[in-house]
Automatic annotation (TrEMBL):
Organism (species): Leptonychotes weddellii (Weddell seal)
Pfam family for this entry, one: DNase_II
Described purpose of this protein according to its UniProt entry: Hydrolyzes DNA under acidic conditions. Does not require divalent cations for activity. Participates in the degradation of nuclear DNA during lens cell differentiation.
Annotated keywords: Endonuclease, Glycoprotein, Hydrolase, Lysosome, Nuclease, Signal
CDD domains in the cross-refs: PLDc_DNaseII_beta_2
The protein, known as: Deoxyribonuclease-2-beta
Length: 358
């Protein structure tokens, strides 16, 4: 009887500890608030015609449990959207004021600032939230987003007019040392952060970046392999402003050994042409098609992504920070890439037509 009671007590203790651990496990979240290994959103541009009922807050959604794009049920500015659900963990962590959770928010377009755009830092936008179990990395293209933890969730008016993309990935804590090195190369404009001392031994650069005291030597570029909490493999390309070239043509396409179709915001008279001068080419996507909706042009799209050309053997999809413009060759930033076939097919299906080389 005593032995049985002992086993019961141990079992209750185990499940109790497991419950506490599970309750504090940080993860990307879907619209139902359920944990997912990763998700991708594509915020659609707002149509400018008067007859359109679109608000500029509609989006497509894809995650680790689905095989293709679906329309999001929630608008981007609601707390029930995937971004609202996911960032709720940030607000709860900030409110609890515990020393077990860290966060870091960065954007070259800082929220609630009159002169919100700074060329001093990388052309990077994202946030990290983690504890010693696991965390998330959200990489996105939305200026002035997200608000600081003190302000709670909102979606900025500056993010409505154009298309926007983002990817959230759940990582175990053992991946954060590699992410730490990538952030150093980024030189991000950090506008809100908290990294308690318990993380400083493994993570060297992010605490220094957080306080603005980093004196580490920055490499011109750095590539690292990452793995999500559920085992999805990624490659992350990070370039500093010492790497004075187009990240797509000069590095990513050649390393991945694939022709790339690149969709980035190309303002008129500020675009780089498609590039076929190297073994692997980069072609500018010029129009995006959405099922059940008319197409939109790349001039309406602030998204940053690329996908392998159909006839190439290596099928990659990358989402990130930088545009294909001459000026962005002098900015730091990067892309996270995967060979996930559902992601590849989803992005391939968006390409209506692209620009060939002259």
């Amino acid at each position: 009887m005593t032995a049985r009671l002992g086993r019961t007590a141990l079992a209750l203790l185990f499940f109790g500890l497991f419950g506490v651990l599970e309750a504090t496990t940080i993860s990307c979240r879907n619209e139902e608030g359920e944990a997912v290994d990763w998700f991708i959103f594509y915020k659609l541009p707002k149509k400018q015609d008067k007859e359109s009922r679109q608000t500029g807050l509609e989006s497509l959604y894809l995650d680790s449990t689905t095989r293709s794009w679906r329309r999001s049920k929630q608008l981007m500015n609601t707390t029930k959207s995937v971004l609202g659900r996911t960032l709720q963990q940030l607000y709860e962590a900030h409110a609890s004021k515990n020393n077990n959770t860290a966060y870091l928010l960065y954007n070259d377009g800082v929220p609630t600032s009159v002169n919100y755009y700074s060329r001093k830092y990388g052309h990077t936008k994202g946030l990290l939230l983690w504890n010693r179990v696991q965390g998330i990395w959200l990489i996105h293209s939305i200026p002035q987003f997200p608000p600081t933890p003190e302000e709670g969730y909102d979606y900025p008016p500056t993010g409505r007019r154009h298309g926007q993309t983002g990817i959230c990935i759940t990582f175990k804590y053992n991946q954060y040392e590699a992410i730490d090195s990538q952030l150093l190369v980024y030189n991000p404009n950090i506008y809100s952060c908290s990294i308690p001392a318990i993380f400083h031994q493994e993570l060297v650069h992010m605490p220094q970046l957080c306080t603005g005291s980093s004196s580490s030597e920055i490499p011109s570029r750095h590539l690292t392999a990452l793995q999500s909490a559920r085992g999805q493999k990624f490659l992350h390309f990070a370039k500093s402003d010492f790497f004075l070239d187009d990240i797509f043509a000069a590095w990513m396409a050649q390393h991945l050994k694939t022709h790339l179709l690149a969709e980035t915001w190309q303002r008129k008279r500020q675009e780089l042409p498609s590039n076929c001068s190297l073994p692997y080419h980069v072609y500018n996507v010029k129009a995006i098609k959405i099922s059940g909706q008319s197409y939109f042009s790349s001039y309406q799209d602030h998204a940053k992504w690329c996908v392998s050309q159909k006839r190439t053997k290596n099928r990659w999809t990358c989402i990130g920070d930088l545009n294909r413009t001459p000026y962005q060759a002098f900015r730091s930033g990067g892309f996270i890439c995967t060979q996930n076939q559902h992601i590849y097919r989803a992005f391939q299906g968006l390409v209506l037509y692209y620009e060939h080389c002259n």
